[in-house]
Write a structure and sequence with these properties.
heterodimer; A: mainly alpha; MetI-like fold; disordered N terminus; B: mainly alpha; two-stranded antiparallel sheet; 27 helices; elongated
């Protein structure tokens, strides 16, 4: 634990190490603020001076970490108010939190906690830069998704932050795009179509997929590899090719532009996910359970529903969720196989994005993000439950 | 011993002790044990196949059949021989290198084919098809189709002047149809009229048209035209041939038949024989039409031998033409040649698709490797927390992520606003980051990054940390330990992730379509364009087939490196 290492960690020098680095950080924030106020150089100098002063004050006179950081936040928020009013205060508080954290992180030697004690300074520097780079990549992954959420509360019909929004003025925010989503007949029709198509497709893929997965996991299946390849193929073939083929073929047999056609196409796309998750669950399945059940007089159907099904249910449900989200998110195939009557939510978003109609898309996107968070947690819970169940199963 | 046959084995084993020492070991029912085991195994196989069968059939019908259909369409070319069946046959003997137009015969057959096609509105489709090969053919077919009936009218007027009965539907119906059909149709007409009077619904299907005996043999051309006419009336108009007189071209056909076979009337009886023999006597004195001159009159363009050469080149039922087009070549009467320079786009598009997929793959490795390394070396609790940050984008709708990038990157977007606010970029020179390659690469890197991180993570998780520690204890620096010991072990993960990302990106459609503009689009966007806008389905199918071949090849490689069975969903 770090508390044991702590005494042996050399205390970093204040003037030679902590002060300059905090000053650089301060200079950076000063530069940002300064350039926004058209006085770059001044901002840089003031930032460096304020940073160094803060570090000196905190390290010298504020041994209590928590208190020191609150002081830094308050101080910078006050500066923010002077510079830019209420939004300035918020930005200032954020900068203050970062500055306070950096100061204590450096001055207490916490920056060495995760590396072995024998690491040289460049190694420590490299380690921390590496963590910083990783942080940037995580930021790259998450930031775009998080950006659209506040934008969906935009009171204007813009795809960008308005000055009122940046000023945190309540007038800049509204629920009108959400209201539009729930009242606009186009969106409602799209929502209804999605809700009608996805469950039907999921039902087909789950029922057929589970049976086939059970068949595939038995020991003696002839041609297992080619069969598996065919069943997985909808996942492998690029969607545009599946869509093209389905468009040609379904218009030949009269399924193009029908509800049934879209459901069948989506069911085919969802099947690989069901097969993969259910066969993965069945790998750990103990076959002596079904034999025991047969031994006690249960028929195959009863054995399936009373013994096998409860045990593989987590796999089936997460396969079903995958299939559901595949259909719910799918756009390429429905764009070709469907007609205006089968316009789904992604399709409506696609047209909206193409024509830049209104930020209602962002409201829908935010709702979808919330839904996917819910689904993600469900799948994660199911996976844990499945592992627990398999751990408990005898054998 | 396999798991499934345990029950039978145990059963058999008990028998072994019971049975006498000599002779084959018997199972409970008195069969030899070996046979009994085999039977159980067979039953098990059948049961497994029975469970798989419904899904297999489902996938074959809903997915594999469409793919096969697409492959078929990429070489299919039946439209030429379907629309111009006679012309294609007579044109086969024509030598395109002679520099002369085909003979009178070809023009005659072409007239009959085109007149029928024009009535059935199929000539414009053929024109569109041939226009892919020779620009201008489409308008040729369209304009000629509008005026082609003038030729038949010459004969129609002469027949009707000879005997007004030729202008009546029933004359034709009686002449062409069989007795059975006539009776059946009369009965149907009577029933329909009765139903109409009583205001009842009447939905009995029309009886199928049937030719009288010898009609096909004696009057082949007329029968061919009338067959098309009957089919057209039945399917497109839901009427019998008794409702309308045949197309003008039928009169021309009858003229040709009677000229070729003046004794045709002998095979008919009653009224039919009278009217036919009357006509047969009269036709030699009819004013004849010079088909070649008449067709050239409908449209000047037919005097270009190039047009006929193109029809001849594309008359086979199957063609490699679409595939050649897909790689910027074209099949001309003089062999395979490069497309005109301004139409060479597909090789460029394929190259661009490959280049951008490689860029996306590269940036995914660069961004994904540190993350996967971090995740696999952190304690489980922390790495699970961070894993959520990777899985959330993975689970978020593709359109949500694409719209996010659109919002961020556009000229009035968040990033540009931020840069302008900071004073790094002037307000009037905002960066163009969307609708070009940059936008596509950034957005797709973000979208595909989880597909790189997850396989990398699962491989790195299996690398024992003790190897790196051993290397360090033997005196390796951090870098050497990483580069010589850790990195080589993580290469399978890089390979798996790269192939996965590459395969996914070369087939991507939605994101390039939305953020790619004109310079950032992929081959898939062109496929979609040919399906929905230009309607050149054959070319779309050929492009799709090439793409599919590339993807399957890559998957084969993936299977060799990682194994398809190891596909995991994170």
């Amino acid at each position: 634990m770090s508390s044991i290492d702590l005494p042996s960690t050399p205390k970093p020098s204040l003037t030679g190490f902590v002060l300059p680095i905090v000053a650089v950080a301060g200079a950076f924030f000063g530069l940002v603020t300064g350039s926004a106020k058209d006085s770059t150089l001044l901002g840089l100098v003031i930032g460096a001076v304020v940073g160094a002063a803060l570090a000196y004050a905190l390290v010298g006179y504020m041994p209590n970490r928590r208190l020191g950081r609150w002081v830094a936040i308050g101080l910078f928020a006050a500066i923010g108010i002077l510079v830019g009013g209420f939004p300035g205060a918020v930005a200032g508080a954020a900068i203050g939190a970062v500055m306070g954290w950096i100061t204590y992180w450096l001055s207490t030697g916490a920056y060495r906690h995760n590396v072995p004690i024998y690491y040289t300074a460049p190694q420590v520097l490299w380690h921390n830069s590496y963590l910083f780079i990783c942080g940037l990549v995580f930021f790259f992954l998450i930031a775009p998704i998080l950006t659209i959420m506040p934008l969906s509360f935009n009171a204007e019909n813009f795809f960008t932050f308005t000055p009122e929004m940046l000023a945190l003025d309540p007038a800049g925010y509204s629920l009108k795009h959400y209201r539009d989503f729930f009242t606009n007949p186009n969106w409602q029709q799209a929502m209804r179509n999605s809700v009608q198509i996805a469950p039907a497709a999921t039902f087909i893929s789950v029922s057929l997929g589970t049976l086939a997965a059970i068949g595939l996991s038995s020991e003696h299946v002839p041609f297992r590899r080619p069969i598996m390849a065919i069943l997985i193929s909808p996942m492998i073939v690029p969607l545009i090719i599946s869509a093209a083929g389905m468009y040609f073929f379904y218009s030949r047999v009269g399924l193009q532009g029908t509800y049934l056609g879209v459901v069948l196409a989506h069911a085919a796309l969802g099947i690989p996910f069901v097969i993969i998750t259910v066969t993965a669950t069945l790998v750990g399945f103990d076959n002596s359970l079904t034999r025991a059940s047969a031994n006690m007089g249960a028929g195959p159907v009863r054995t399936f529903f009373k013994v096998q099904m409860p045990l593989i249910l987590p796999g089936v449900i997460s396969g079903g969720l995958f299939a559901f989200i595949t259909s719910f998110d799918e756009i390429v195939v429905v764009l070709f196989v469907g007609s205006a009557g089968q316009k789904t939510l992604p399709w409506q978003m696609f047209t909206g994005l193409r024509e830049q109609i209104s930020p209602t898309i962002l409201a829908v996107a935010s709702i979808l993000v919330v839904i996917s968070i819910a689904l993600l947690s469900t799948v994660e819970l199911l996976r844990r439950r499945s592992e627990r169940l398999r751990g408990m199963s005898p054998g | 011993m396999s798991d499934g046959s345990d029950a039978t084995n145990a059963d058999g084993a008990r028998r072994v002790s019971d049975s006498s020492d000599d002779g084959p070991v018997l199972a409970a029912d008195g069969r030899p044990l070996k046979q009994s085991l085999q039977r159980a195994l067979r039953r098990q196989k059948l049961r497994a196949l029975g469970l798989i069968a419904p899904l297999l059939i489902f996938i074959l019908v809903t997915f594999i059949a469409p793919i096969a259909d697409m492959l078929f369409r990429s070489v299919e070319n039946q439209i030429v021989s379907d629309t111009l069946p006679q012309t294609v046959q007579t044109l086969a003997d024509w030598d395109p290198d002679s520099g002369e137009l085909p003979g009178q015969e070809v023009f005659r057959d072409f007239y009959f084919d085109l007149a029928v096609a024009a009535q059935r509105k199929k000539h414009t489709q053929l024109g569109t098809r041939l226009n892919y090969e020779l620009t201008g053919v489409s308008s040729l077919f369209r304009r000629s189709g509008r005026r082609i009936d003038d030729i038949g009218e010459v004969y129609m007027d002469q027949f009707e002047d000879l005997n007004a009965a030729w202008g009546e539907e029933m004359t034709w119906a009686r002449l062409m149809g069989s007795e059975d059909w006539l009776q059946e149709q009369e009965a149907w007409n009577a029933d329909a009229a009765a139903a109409d009077e009583a205001d009842r619904d009447f939905d009995r299907p029309l009886p199928a048209f049937e030719f009288g005996a010898d009609v096909r043999a004696e009057l082949p051309r007329t029968a061919a035209v009338f067959d098309e006419f009957a089919h057209y009336m039945r399917t497109d108009n839901q009427e019998s041939v008794m409702e309308d007189e045949p197309w003008e071209v039928a009169y021309a056909a009858l003229y040709e038949d009677l000229m070729a076979n003046p004794d045709a009337a002998a095979a008919f009886s009653g009224e039919n024989a009278t009217i036919l023999s009357e006509a047969a006597d009269a036709v030699p004195k009819f004013q004849a039409v010079d088909y070649k001159a008449a067709i050239l009159e409908t449209e000047e363009g037919w005097s270009d031998p190039q047009v006929w050469a193109t029809i001849q080149t594309f008359s086979p039922d199957y063609t490699t033409g679409y595939f050649l087009n897909a790689v910027d070549l074209q099949m001309t009467p003089d062999g395979i040649q490069a497309q005109p320079r301004d139409q060479q786009i597909y090789v460029l598009l394929f190259k661009r698709t490959l280049f951008m997929s490689l860029m996306i793959m590269g940036s995914c490795v660069v961004l994904g490797y540190p993350i996967a390394y971090l995740l696999s070396n952190l304690p489980l609790r922390e790495s699970n927390m961070l894993m959520i940050l990777v899985l959330l984008p993975f689970w978020t709708s593709l359109l949500v992520r694409t719209s996010a990038w659109k919002v961020l990157l556009q000229q009035q977007g968040v990033i540009n606003d931020l840069l302008v606010w900071l004073g790094l970029v002037a307000d009037d020179s905002r960066l163009v980051m969307i609708n070009n390659q940059f936008g596509t690469i950034v957005a797709m890197t973000h979208i595909l990054l989880p597909f790189m991180i997850l396989p990398l993570y699962s491989v790195m998780k299996t690398i024992p940390p003790s190897y790196v520690r051993a290397a360090k204890s033997l005196g390796a620096t951090n870098w050497t330990a990483f580069w010589r010991v850790y990195f080589p072990q993580s290469v399978p993960g890089i390979g798996a992730g790269c192939i996965l990302v590459f395969i996914l990106s070369i087939g991507y459609y939605i994101t390039p379509e939305l953020v790619g503009g004109t310079t950032g689009t992929f081959i898939s966007n062109r496929i979609a364009y040919h399906i929905s806008s230009s309607l050149n389905w054959g070319l779309a199918a050929a492009l799709g087939s090439i793409l599919l071949a590339v993807v399957l090849l890559l998957y084969w490689v993936y299977d060799k490196i990682v194994g398809i069975d190891n596909v995991s969903l994170g």
